[in-house]
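Reproducibility note. Readers wishing to regenerate the assembly model reported in the main text can use the exact inputs given here. Chain order matters: entities are listed in the order in which they were concatenated for prediction.
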Amino acid sequence: MDIQLTINDISLKVPEGMSILDAAKTVNIDIPTLCYLKLNEMHYNNNIASCRVCVVEVEGRRNLASSCSTPVASGMIVKTDSLRAIQARRAMVELLLSDHPKSCLTCAKNQDCDLQSLASELGVRHISYEGEESTFEIDKSSFSIVRDPNKCIRCRRCETMCNEVQTVGVYSAVGRGFNTVVKTAFDLPLHETSCTFCGQCIAVCPTGALTELDQVDKVWKALNDPNQFVVVQTAPAVRVALGEEFGLEPGTIVTGKMVGALRRLGFDRVFDTDFAADLTIMEEATELVHRIQHGGRLPLLTSCCPAWVKFFEHQFPDLLDIPSTCKSPHEMLGVLIKSYYAKSLGIDPKTITVVSVMPCVAKKYEAARPELAQGAETADVDIVITTRELARMIREASIHFDHLKDKEFDHPLGESTGAAIIFGATGGVLEAALRTAYEVLTGETLEKVEFEALRGMDGIKEAVIPIAGRDYRIAVIHGLGNARTVLEKIRAGEINYDVIEIMACPGGCIGGGGQPYHHGNMDILAARAAAIYREDRAKPLRKSHENLAIISLYKDYLGEPYGKKAHQLLHTSYTPRKKI
Amino acid sequence: MCDTASPNKFVQKLDDYIDSLTYKKENLIGVLHYAQEIYGYLPDNVQWHIAQKLDIPSATVYGVVTFYSFFTMIPRGEHVVNVCTGTACFVRGAEKLKGELENQLKIKAGETTTDNLFTLETLRCVGACGLAPVMIVDGKVHGRMNEAQHINEVLAKYRPEI
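Running the prediction on these inputs yields the following structure tokens for the assembly.
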């Protein structure tokens, strides 16, 4: 049933149950918001009305109504731009600022902060309120995420993301009144909780309360160390998002400029994580065939995503035998740079620094995992920076990004196929695996390489793909909450699959916690995904097993896929962890 | 904290209580009440145990415990002395009673004596306004507590005999 109401003298009809905020949007009336965030594609809705910024005047109502949480009613007369509403909004922001550090200039979120832009939009020129300011300890315990509760505005977006979408449940509002703040259980440092470091809390945090652990200085130091041979690699999802940091349209592919920028920054070699994505396909597909032939446990779960890996270690420690033992692609490339490539150059792996540029903050934690190293001194990957941090370095070096000439990745660990680039979007790993599995198992050429059923933003996608007389039951999942739903059914023996791809972040790596901030605009994720598939189509080779550099890697160095040497270098093991 | 096992002493009792509930997650506050009754307070590992048993995040449990002033994470004494500071008691000298108790026990409200015998707290109205001012020791109401001597006599009943 439609409801008839008036907003700013405009008469409109909207469906029952709609909020005033959404109703206003239908007639192009914007109401400022701060804590409110709705991401339909992720089934994420934070409308707890804690910030009171979206208040509007409703005729006949004594107090102002928060438009994000107040449903429309028949005959309602709403004023969004009355003096009272505007003054109340400004007062709310001033109150928030009165208990907020005024260190905007040096804040990691400077110019990317919702509170800052709101204060500017509302014309806050001074803060009328003075009083006590919170003093909480900053948590830098983890390798991935920095928590500064002093900058927390109690909007609880992170809590909604962590508890409801990801079902990890690390955060809760703790205490009451002025002392309320979003914290972990028992004030534990993040490193000691079940946090997966997916970084989605960072992606939705409106202020600088949650940011990545900045490693930019470490990279500069390595680049300026004459004794270090510094090699960089970039993940597939970085090249379709980095341009946004320099004002380019979302979905602009900047692969060539990105490589050019990395060369200008002084990296000795610029390699592509896509090479290792092709390698992952070779290893994982062989592992699947091996499990099927030897009666191993199914389903095989992909293991490219470090947040997902940490999630199952905490939440499903009884199922540790089902994920693939493959290291994630950047770890594979790291170990190959320090073994295969170091050998070919004749240099000591200890003098090589491997830097990964990732759309992800969990990769920072992953790189520090002790088992992902060859001995105590040689980690597979030394430093991980996010897409955002790379952009920061490019700006720090005063490089004119849009004037850069397109450059190519270095040979041989920069060679890749279209199957590798699609790792960046949800469904990509399995689509890439199917392209190879089909040809290997049937001996025929796969004419149509696109598997449309595996693409798109549905949280759980299923398909049955017949190959060489066997039906492969596959599922593609993104978002950890969706993963939990399926894993619980697997644990209970209710459903069976042969292989499942799981990515922690909604949309896959293109929506990673280290990507340029989307500020709630989901069209940006769609544009990035489209760019990923465009880049795939433009590649001359689109199947991992056709990658010539991969073929010679196996021939010259590794031997058989899933063989002894491959096991030693490219595979890993998992640790059961406690649920906090 | 979570590496230490839950205190076994009462864990069976707590588990039995949780098992007896039809709605478990929904009854978090009730479970916390019960746990505080048997443990005297809610240490981290008890909260963690409840979180596992109810299949909810520990952070959620911690959030609830820190929200309600009734719940405490600090061990309490063997006997809990409460002073009513509700309106009737307030008018009839609750502040004086509280001061006298602080004086005799040598602690402030919210604290526990060094011998762990008494914890002093305040609460609001137990419905015994006719007896104001009242103090409540381990749930038993003692009324018309105006005299220092009288207060001392009540406390003495809870002290071990020498």
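We highlight two features of this model. Chain A touches chain B at residues 163, 168-176, 183-186, 188, 193, 578-580 (CB under 8 Å). The mean pLDDT of chain A is 96.
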